[in-house]
Amino acid sequence: MPNYRSLIGGFFSSTPMDKSTGPVSIRCNNPGAINGASWEKTYPGYVDTVLTTTGNKSTIFEAPEYGVGAWWNLLRRYRADGATTVEGIITKYGGGQDYSAYLSFVLKQTGFSPGTVIDLNNDQQLLQFGKAMFRYEAGKALPWSDEQLLFGIRSARTFANTGTWPATVGAQPAPQPGTQPQPVPDLPTGGHNLMPLLQKLLGALAAHPPAAPAANPGIALPVPGSASPPPVLSFIDQILGGQAMTGSKTILGVISYVGVTVLKATGVLGIATPPGQILTILSIALTVLGALAKVDRATLSLGNLAAKPK
Question: In 3D, which of 71, 73, 67, 64 has the Cα closest to residue 10?
Fold first, then answer.
């Protein structure tokens, strides 16, 4: 009995032969709708190749991640035959049929040109290309997450290089008392890594520490009628909006993080895509810097009060 599942958690089908549960590619856990090749029978997660519609066979996989991996392996075989561009791959995919409509759809969805070379080591390009092809095959919105698709792509690459499919990603056990938790790995952000920017901002803050407050036997109250002192601005305040943004950065960061989370949950933003990662990092950075600015302002205010003549 096949063990139908998702390898990392997400949508999968356990009813490949029930036409009422969706298009062939979705219900067979076979996003690329590949079929008929003898090598598929020895590919991880292979279940069977069956006649799903008149004259058309489809391969069934236990998990959609395996199906994505088989699609990647098919592209690798195409590359060995000289089909490396979007047009070349789609034409070969058609097996002699007129796939001009298929090609037009993929070009429109991706913004690629017919001559764009598909790099089998470029996760983001493969994700974009694959989602367009999978969307055309399914004829409807995709039920799989970007993480599922990327896991299939990366696992297929590992399998091709080592002959071993990577272990399924599972929940990490809670740290035992008295042990140090493992560090969380950096998010993969491709060519849009904003962590260096955050590090520069924090480094600039460290280079301009607030003056330590002097001993303060008593704090003098302001004299009625005297001029109001200028607002206290931390170094972070000065580089992020000045007085107009004082006290607002933390709440804006929290609101933006909630907004990004909602967009990811509704599928508007892909979690593993550069836009989703960039917005997440920006919202977290704004929240952290806002909190640091509050501490900095409080320290500066105490220092100013302590420095006033008694």
Answer: 64
Instruction: Provide the token pair at 117.
Output: 């070379």
Would the CA dihedral through 224, 228, 234, 237 be positive or negative? positive
Name the amino acid, one letter, at 126.
Answer: L
Residue 282's H or E segment, with its range, is: helix 274-307
What is the residue-wise DSSP string for 68-122? HHHHHHHHHHHHHTT--BHHHHHHHHTTTS--HHHHHHHHHHH---TTPBP-TT-
Residue type, 291: A
| pLDDT (tens digit per residue) in 121-172 | 999 999 999 999 999 999 999 999 999 999 999 999 999 999 999 986 543 3
| Contact between 31 and 149 (Cβ < 8 Å) | yes
- pLDDT score of 194 more than 50: no
Whether pTM exceeds 0.90: no
* Sign for the pseudo-dihedral over CA of 140, 146, 147, 152: positive
Please report, rounded to a whole number, the percentage of residues in the chain having pLDDT higher than 70: 58
User: Where do the domains of the chain lie?
Assistant: 19-162, 195-211+230-307
Q: Would you list the DSSP string of 16-75?
A: TT-GGG--HHHHTT-TT-----GGGGGSTTEEEEEEEETTEEEEEESSHHHHHHHHHHHH
Strand, helix or coil for residue 117: strand
CA–CA distance, 128 with 110 (Å, rounded to integer): 6
* 130, amino acid identity: G
DSSP string, 202-265: HHHHHHSPPPPPPP-S-PPPPPTTSPPPPPP--HHHHHTTGGGGTTTHHHHHHHHHHHHHHHHH
